[in-house]
Amino acid sequence: MNEATSKAIAAERSAAHLTIKELAKKANLNERTLIRLLQNERNINVIQLAQLAEVFGVYPHELIEAAERFIERAERGPVSLSVEPDSDDATARDYYAMAAKHGDIEAEQEAYEEMP
Question: Dihedral sign, CA of 102, 107, 109, 113?
Answer without folding.
Answer: negative
